[in-house]
Each structure stands twice: as structure tokens, then as C-alpha cells.
Amino acid sequence: MIIEKLESAGTYGWIAQELAKVLDYLKNTDLKTLPSGRAEIDGDRMFAVVQDYITSGEEELKFEAHRAYLDVQYIVAGTEKILVSSLQNFHQEAVPYRPDEDIVFYEETPKSVALILQEGDYAVFTPEDCHKTRCDADGKQKQKVKKVIVKIKIQKDQEEERVGQKMGIHHLAVRVKNFEAAKAFYTEGLGGECYAQWTHQKGFPACMIRLNGGGILEVLGDGGEALPDNFEERSGCFIHLALIVEDVEAAVERALEYGARLKGEIKDVDVPEPMHLGAVYGPSGEIVEFLKYRE
């Protein structure tokens, strides 16, 4: 997600070529006179959607996300609040994906940040950014807003660079010598939330901690398992990388094609959450888990 003032956007050298075209369009178009609806820029590759509306209470609205386009949302007039959260924080669709509209709606999440966008502000939302727009800025007072949303199509060659399907980091796992001390450190000390705790089949304690920025850390204790001689050196090291994927079997097959080794069988697990799980050893011996939430 990118948030910036339109007039100072040129100072950022990392702005991609497509985004630069969007900013040029916004700066050189009489946006206030545009009627509601679609405004052409570059066919289906890039176009604008002009909206005029009255803001609503956030409880009346739903989070949305897109898969084929990036959103550049620019406020022409008015003020609104937008709630934003990572796609990884959503596990249940409220309305299934509509390919013709490139939109999917999700149920609520307790993990979101609030943005207040005023006239002249813009925000960029990627497919990984779920957003709830049109919210009352102060939670009460309705406002009339005019907004221009420029849609940037994700190019096919960009999609082909991905590993066959969309993936995102679900969590990192760390091995610790003092489980209770580590749990207190990440929760009481750093403000995380322990949302699941269990005893591993090998006898040691484990828990999942959702950090206040939205990331997830799995903490694995040392109880009940024969410890290696060099555990003091290994304590605190990261154990595995867990990726959330659309198709576990396909992800594992792809990994094996590129030098990975299968780690156990692909299976359903119930802790810490109901998931379909596959795991491999990467080319350097690292453990990579592929996860998909079960219905």
C-alpha cells in the first residue's frame, strides 16, 4: 500500500512506470467535472472509475479485494476513512470472487488500520490489501465524496513470474529454550496475542502469536523432546517458513520440480487451526510448509 500527497509524488524515485502514468492522468485531468462511471485511459489495461457517494458507518460496509487490478484511489472532494488489512488476515469470503467485476468481499477482521483520506490524497492498494472504503471519517458524520479510482491491470508476464499460484507468508516458527519466557516476551513485552496453544505430539509446548502488525509467529518449546548437544546455539533460531497457498498439492509438486525433498505426507491438521498441510525440505535443507485453510 502506498499513501502520499499528489503534489509531492514526483520526489519518490521508486514509483513504477505505470503508477507515474496514473499520477500524470490525475494531475492533468479536470477531475471535478468527470461524471460517475468509467473513464477511458488505456483500454482494459488502465482505466478510471469515477464515484460520487455519501459515506456510511463502517459496520454497514465490507472489506473488499481485487485480483486482476491494482487500485489507485484519489479523493477529488470530501473526506473518508478507509480500513485496510492484509489479505492473510481473512479466512472467510462474504461474497465469492466475481471475475467480471474483479472483486471479492470478506467477513470482518479485528486486525486493520484506519486511513483518513482528504481532498488531494491518494492511496494505492495491491491485491494483498483488503480495504473497506466509504466509511464516515469520524464514525458519525456523513460526508459527500467524489473519488477517482484508477485501475492498473496486472500484466500477464508479471503473473507468470509467480510460482504457479498466489502465495504469501503465513507464519515463521522459532525454537526457544524457555517457552514461558518467550511467550511472555512476544505477548506482554511486544504486544502480541496468543490465539492458540497446544502440546506437540512429541511432547513440547507450542503456541501461535499474532503480532500487532498482523504477522504470525509460531513458538516451539523444548519440553519432552530429546535436545541436541548444540541446543544452546540453536535456541532462538527460526525453524521453518510457512506459506499460505491456493493449492497445497500443486505447490508441493512445483517445489519438488525445483530440487526440494518431501517432508512427510500431505495431510489435514486441526492445530493450531483446521488446515491442509504439505511440507518440503528446500535445496539447502530449510523446511517450507504450504498451508491452506480447510472449509
Summarize the structure.
It is built from 5 helices and 21 strands.
Overview of the molecule:
The structure is a single chain. By secondary structure, the chain is mostly beta strands. The protein folds into two domains: 159 residues, Jelly Rolls (Sandwich); 127 residues, 2,3-Dihydroxybiphenyl 1,2-Dioxygenase, domain 1, CATH 3.10.180.10. It is built from five helices and 21 strands. Strands 13, 14, 15, 16, 17, 18, 19, 20 and 21 form a nine-stranded mixed β-sheet that branches. The protein has a six-stranded antiparallel β-sheet with strand order 1-10-5-12-3-2, covered by helices on one side. A hairpin with a 5-residue loop joins strand 15 and strand 16. The longest helix is centred in the N-terminal third of the chain and has 11 residues. The protein is globular. The two termini are 29 Å apart.
Explain the layout of strands and helices:
Elements: E1 2-5, H1 17-27, E2 37-42, E3 46-54, E4 63-65, E5 69-77, E6 80-86, E7 93-98, E8 103-106, E9 113-117, E10 121-125, E11 129-135, E12 144-153, H2 156-160, E13 167-175, H3 179-189, E14 193-199, E15 205-210, E16 216-220, H4 231-234, E17 238-245, H5 248-257, E18 261-262, E19 267-269, E20 275-281, E21 287-293
Parallel strand pairs: 13-16, 17-21
Antiparallel strand pairs: 1-10, 2-3, 3-12, 4-8, 5-10, 5-12, 6-9, 6-11, 7-8, 13-17, 14-15, 15-16, 18-20, 19-20, 20-21
